[in-house]
Structure formats: structure tokens, C-alpha cells
Specification:
Elements: H1 2-34, E1 40-44, E2 49-51, E3 64-68, H2 69-74, E4 78-79, H3 103-110, E5 118-122, E6 127-129, E7 142-146, H4 147-152, E8 156-157
Parallel strand pairs: 2-4, 6-8
Antiparallel strand pairs: 1-2, 1-3, 5-6, 5-7
């Protein structure tokens, strides 16, 4: 008789646990769908590059600040190594065809510099260097090409300064 009561109590406890546990999961799943995924990043204010949590340079540069990934993108910063952290930012999505480009792309096209200058592209970082600068022809991996080709393939100018 004592064992029967113990079994009934255990069975009731198990039923209550399962009901509460499944209700909590449903509520939690509903909250996840309504909330945007917001990630705090470290923005290196000197270079305009932001770093994701858990990476080497997160909160580890001389000049920087914490910001949400969406705010960092909105301020014109770019992700380190071209890898976004994964926030659900409407501004992080690419523009639809036919829509006007963002303002920072307009300024980039205005500052193309001399398209025929021979530059050194660091193929590891995607940064190109102008003749006469320290890293021109001096990185571990790279190749020479025209500044126009370097810009067209998605490389950026070192320190944001195009070659004249």
C-alpha cells in the first residue's frame, strides 16, 4: 500500500513537471521569434572596424567603444575580416537592386583617385597600398594590379587614402 501511494505521488509529480516544462518552452519559443538578436560589439574608433565577442581584439584595442552591431554598421564601421556577428539588423542587409546606394558608397565612388596607378594588394586582408608607402610590395601575400581593378574586386585603400 505504501509503495502504491509513493508510485502515485511520483507519477503526479512527473506529470506536473512535464506540463510546466512544455509550457515554459512554448513561451520561450514565442519570445525568441518576437525579439531581435542584438549583439554588443567592440568598435575600434581608430580604424572603423568592429569586433565580435570572443574574438582576439574584442575590447582589446587602444581606442574603442562598445556598441550594438546595428549602431556600428549605421555609423559606417565595418566588420573585422568581413565577418558580421549575426545581429538581425535591417541596415545590415544588402540594398535591393534599383535602390539608391547608401551615402558612404557615394563618397567612395567620388574618391577613386587615379585608376591607372599600380598598387600592391595584400590578398590576406583585402587592403591595397600605394607606391612609396611602407607596405607597398612588402606583405607576405599579395599581388600588383591597377587601382581600378583593386577597387572593383572589393579591396579597400590602406588607411582610407586612395592613390593619386
Amino acid at each position: 500500500m505504501r509503495r502504491a501511494r509513493l508510485a502515485v505521488v511520483a507519477l503526479l509529480g512527473l506529470c506536473v513537471f512535464l506540463v510546466l516544462h512544455s509550457t515554459g518552452r512554448a513561451a520561450q519559443a514565442g519570445q525568441e521569434k518576437t525579439q531581435n538578436k542584438e549583439i554588443t560589439v567592440w568598435v575600434n574608433t581608430s580604424s572603423g572596424v568592429y569586433h565580435c565577442p570572443g574574438t582576439r581584439w574584442y575590447a582589446n584595442t587602444k581606442h574603442g567603444k562598445y556598441s550594438s552591431e546595428c549602431a556600428a554598421i549605421k555609423d559606417g564601421n565595418r566588420p573585422a575580416y568581413g565577418k558580421a556577428c549575426g545581429s538581425d539588423c535591417p541596415s545590415a542587409q544588402t540594398a535591393t537592386p534599383g535602390s539608391p546606394p547608401p551615402a558612404n558608397e557615394n563618397t567612395r565612388t567620388q574618391q577613386t583617385g587615379n585608376p591607372d596607378v599600380k598598387v600592391w594588394v595584400n590578398t590576406n586582408s583585402g587592403v591595397y597600398h600605394c607606391p612609396g608607402t611602407r607596405w607597398y610590395g612588402n606583405t607576405k601575400q599579395g599581388e600588383f594590379m591597377s587601382q581600378k581593378k583593386a577597387q572593383d574586386t572589393g579591396n579597400r585603400a590602406a588607411y582610407g587614402k586612395v592613390c593619386q
